[in-house]
Amino acid sequence: QGFTEGTIKSLQIAFKNHENVKIFLLKNSNHTKEMVNEIKDKILKALGKRYTASSIGFTINVRKWRKARA
């Protein structure tokens, strides 16, 4: 349900060929802005320091950088 280990593996595979990935959360899942930010933080923690993310509404944009970001 939701954010799982399989989700992280899918993102890692997607980043082998892409620098930017958009993640769309279902609007009918009763997500709040705080929940979207929590999911974004979990994704960044799991992926590492070479990634940044921003959220707009129910969409999380994740970007892979060549070098680690502070």
Question: Which helices and strands occur, and which strands form pairs?
Answer:
Elements: H1 5-14, E1 20-24, H2 33-47, E2 51-56, E3 59-64
Antiparallel strand pairs: 1-3, 2-3
Would you kindly provide a written description of the structure presented here, covering whatever features stand out?
The protein is globular. With 70 residues, it is an alpha+beta fold. It has a three-stranded antiparallel beta sheet with strand order 1-3-2, with helices on one face. It has two helices and three strands.
Structural category is alpha+beta
Helix-strand sequence: HEHEE
General form: globular
Whole-number radius of gyration?
12 Å
Helix tally equals 2
What's the helical proportion of residues?
A: 25-40%
Percent of sequence in beta strands: 15-25%
Number of strands: 3
Oligomer: single chain
Give the distance, in angstroms, between the N- and C-terminal Cα atoms: 31 Å
| Low-pLDDT stretches | none
**Arithmetic mean of pLDDT:** 88
Largest sheet: 3 strands, antiparallel
Major sheet strand order: 1-3-2
